[in-house]
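User: quick one, sequence for these tokens?
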């Protein structure tokens, strides 16, 4: 099961201005770098309750669609810039805390790389046929989850 959502009305709350395809062929200019426009910006306090709710909901949705219970998971990885929000969402979704991994607790916010980095690092914790839930929220605002069967 896989679900991914976005709400463009919230783009100004968590986004990265450049590089952007609206400028072609130069996607980022020296003055953009000097001004720091290539760094993500986020209103994390305003987003925290919404992200917590959306991550918990999407995790529950993909588990229900897959016909899996939270207890059947070998591993859950939830990624968000604020690890406390991701950890709270995992709790709200009923995920066993001893089988939850939060990438930002390990190495900070690495944008979209958090999930694959942790999947590789934790691959030995999941037996063949083991069930894995991954979920993330990020700029845009976007959020999603997938139920994976490990092979």
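Assistant:
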């Amino acid at each position: 099961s896989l679900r991914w959502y976005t709400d463009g009305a919230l783009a100004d709350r968590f986004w990265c201005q450049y590089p952007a395809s609206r400028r072609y062929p130069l996607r980022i200019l020296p003055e953009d770098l000097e001004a720091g426009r290539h760094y993500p910006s986020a209103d994390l306090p305003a987003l925290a309750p919404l992200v917590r709710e959306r991550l918990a909901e999407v995790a529950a949705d993909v588990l229900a669609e897959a016909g899996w219970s939270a207890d059947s998971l070998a591993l859950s990885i939830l990624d968000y810039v604020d690890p406390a929000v991701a950890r709270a969402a995992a709790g709200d979704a009923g995920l066993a805390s001893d089988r939850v991994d939060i990438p930002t607790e390990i190495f900070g916010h690495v944008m979209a790389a958090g999930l694959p980095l942790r999947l590789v690092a934790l691959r030995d914790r999941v037996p063949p046929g083991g069930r894995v839930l991954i979920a993330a929220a990020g700029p845009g605002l976007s959020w999603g989850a997938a139920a994976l069967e490990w092979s």
